[in-house]
């Protein structure tokens, strides 16, 4: 029995040894094949380059958003807003604005009920007309408002349906809009993607600008122009919408209009103790008080001093080393103060060192404490929770700062 076990053990080991000797890992196979080694290196290199490019794109996107956030108003036309705005709302769900003018491509539904019944769809052709077989005549609707079209159709159908006439008609008419034509508009100037766009009916200048990717930071938000037949029919100041909520400042466009965004009139920055620091566009005749108003006003922590950094005109400076002049203004005497393109106003904070005492070192609660004329050193130490490790106390240094 013992001999049988030894033979059995010998057989099992003999069967296992070949598998152990011939088993190879994937890495060992690659090492034995130089071509596969190079392919693996190339694959890793391409993956790293793709990852690096992806990180760089994300970094660029973040930098663009951060820069855009500094310029007031342009977030309304940011890429995210443009993407959302570019998804046109179905025209069927939009309310018909007062005074909408019918044109080629518009569809009008006419329904008669009562003694006579009729349901017909009228689509205006490129010549502005439609042949109504039910009454055997051409109908001319282009150029008419919805209200004018309803009166016109009622008059034309009364000739074929007598029951529509009289003070007590027995046939009744309803006129409504069906599918409406899209508008073609040119968007040029300082926009992300200038060109010719097809936009939904009832589109405004703002929604059309979103179709073109929005206004770039080099473009004006104070003077967006609408041209019709080569004449300026409107100029829009979007600050009135953004700061005052005047929605009527936006303008409904017509087919063939041109939207032109000129270069911004000025670039003025305000920072420091204002509610909405940033870069603003001021029009000629607007002063620093208007700039502060655009920035949401002064914070309670604003001091009396405003630092102004102004770029000196090229013809008035000796070198670029003297290109910026620094001056200080008093908040109480700012109005009026001319604002020039490139100005940077910094509203200073109330000096934190004034009327405060700082305690540091071996105390329980180091920090700043309010100063009063009757304040004593012992009072300050008590406010700071007292001295730690009194047995090792060697000295107390009192330092006074002259801030005058």
UniProtKB/TrEMBL annotation:
The keyword Coiled coil applies. The lineage of its organism: unclassified sequences, metagenomes, ecological metagenomes. Keywords: Coiled coil, Signal. Residues 95-161 form the Polysaccharide export protein N-terminal domain. This is Soluble ligand binding domain-containing protein. The keyword Ribonucleoprotein does not apply. Residues 36-65 form a coiled coil. InterPro entries: Poly_export (IPR049712), Poly_export_N (IPR003715), Soluble_ligand-bd (IPR019554). GO terms for molecular function: polysaccharide transmembrane transporter activity. Residues 185-229, 268-316, 357-400 form the Soluble ligand binding domain. Gene3D superfamilies: Outer membrane lipoprotein wza domain like (3.10.560.10).
